């Protein structure tokens, strides 16, 4: 085991996979300069052919990645920040997500899109989006939300080896987090949730940065004599619904903590599925702790209260348990 940060683990995953497979390469704006902190040393080791700086044209380089994938390459596309995926949406939706279906399986699009989410730090409306739920609505794309350094490495390696397009949403709030990570190679399967805390009174499902909030709330609740189970889905497409239903069957209560906007959020989808398939287990309403349906303001004083907090989660669980 070695102590590694979230960013170190992303770097290690790309380095190991590029060492293993010469068809893997990285492209994006300024990736050779380690501008975002995750590409240190890669340009020196692999050279400009495999660490490719691109023009500021998201539609152009994401389309180029799709073409490269169709002819046998495995591109990793660094979008720099998650909302920059919007200018490339036609390539993502019309080409990358659909081509395997449209061509009857004659081609695959093994593109990995890395999308860092910057929110809660005054980056304003255009840079603060967390479009996890948005891309969940697009058939043909797998969606990964690693919430720890070890998961960031294991899930990214799995994504790079997958034959389908995968978007990996990297939550900036984890970048400085460090933990012991295995030295030996490991992969984390998609669709396999992790139980971060066991409990009996309520289930809290956290999405990306919502996992940290859920764990903070769980600690506070324990001091009040309430036992909360915290579930980290790790991937939302595919979603490990069985793990969530199993937990709800035990606790009878569900709170979903989601950094996305409230309407049609990941929390909305999980709530709907549990209501459909686990209704008999519920002892109270499903509660979503999300972000209000408004553009994110630049002002820190206005921005911070919008996102899920331990206070909001604690309050939701206490209300459920006291019903």
Write the layout of secondary structure elements.
Layout: E1 2-5, H1 6-20, E2 24-28, H2 42-46, E3 51-53, H3 58-70, E4 74-78, H4 89-96, H5 99-102, E5 112-117, H6 124-127, H7 132-136, E6 142-144, H8 149-161, E7 166-171, E8 178-181, E9 194-197, E10 202-206, H9 210-223, E11 228-232, E12 235-237, H10 241-251, E13 254-261, H11 266-277, E14 287-291, H12 300-303, H13 310-321
Parallel strand pairs: 2-3, 2-4, 4-5, 5-7, 6-7, 10-11, 10-13, 13-14
Antiparallel strand pairs: 1-8, 6-12, 9-11
Helix pairs in contact: 1-8, 3-4, 9-13, 10-11
Please tell me about this protein's structure:
The chain is an alpha/beta fold. The model has no long low-confidence stretch (mean pLDDT 97). The chain contains 13 helices and 14 strands. It has helices spanning 6-20, 42-46, 58-70, 89-96, 99-102, 124-127, 132-136, 149-161, 210-223, 241-251, 266-277, 300-303, 310-321; strands spanning 2-5, 24-28, 51-53, 74-78, 112-117, 142-144, 166-171, 178-181, 194-197, 202-206, 228-232, 235-237, 254-261, 287-291. The radius of gyration is 20 Å and the shape is globular. It starts with a strand and ends with a helix. Helices cover 37% and strands 20% of the residues. It has a seven-stranded mixed sheet with strand order 3-2-4-5-7-6-12, sandwiched between helices. A five-stranded mixed sheet has the order 9-11-10-13-14, sandwiched between helices. A two-stranded antiparallel ribbon has the order 1-8.
């Amino acid at each position: 085991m070695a102590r590694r940060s979230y960013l170190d683990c992303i770097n290690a995953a790309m380095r190991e996979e590029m060492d293993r497979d010469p068809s893997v390469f990285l492209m994006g704006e300024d990736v050779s300069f380690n501008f975002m902190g995750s590409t240190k040393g890669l340009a020196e080791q692999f050279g400009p052919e495999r660490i490719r700086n691109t023009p500021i044209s998201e539609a152009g380089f994401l389309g180029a990645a799709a073409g490269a994938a169709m002819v046998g390459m495995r591109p990793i596309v660094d979008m720099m920040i998650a909302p920059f995926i919007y200018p490339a949406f036609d390539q993502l939706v019309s080409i990358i997500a659909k081509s395997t279906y449209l061509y009857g399986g004659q081609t695959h699009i093994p593109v990995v899109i890395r999308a860092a989410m910057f929110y809660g730090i005054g980056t304003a409306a255009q840079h603060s989006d967390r479009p996890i739920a948005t891309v969940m609505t697009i058939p043909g794309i797998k969606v990964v939300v690693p919430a720890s350094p070890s998961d960031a490495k294991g899930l990214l390696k799995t994504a790079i080896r997958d034959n389908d397009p995968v978007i990996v949403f990297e939550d900036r709030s984890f970048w400085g987090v460090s933990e012991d990570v295995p030295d030996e190679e490991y992969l984390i399967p998609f669709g396999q949730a992790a139980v971060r805390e066991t409990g009996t009174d309520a289930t809290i499902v956290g999405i990306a940065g919502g996992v940290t909030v859920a764990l903070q709330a769980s600690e506070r609740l324990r001091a009040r004599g309430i036992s909360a189970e915290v579930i980290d889905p790790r991937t939302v497409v595919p979603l490990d619904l069985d793990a969530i239903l199993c937990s709800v069957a035990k606790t009878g209560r569900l709170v979903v903590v989601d950094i996305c906007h409230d309407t049609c959020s990941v929390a909305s989808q999980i709530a709907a599925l549990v209501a459909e398939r686990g209704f008999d287990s519920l002892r109270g309403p499903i509660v979503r702790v999300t972000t209000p349906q408004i553009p994110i303001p630049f002002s820190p004083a206005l921005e911070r209260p919008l996102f899920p907090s331990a206070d909001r989660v604690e309050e939701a669980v206490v209300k459920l348990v006291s019903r």
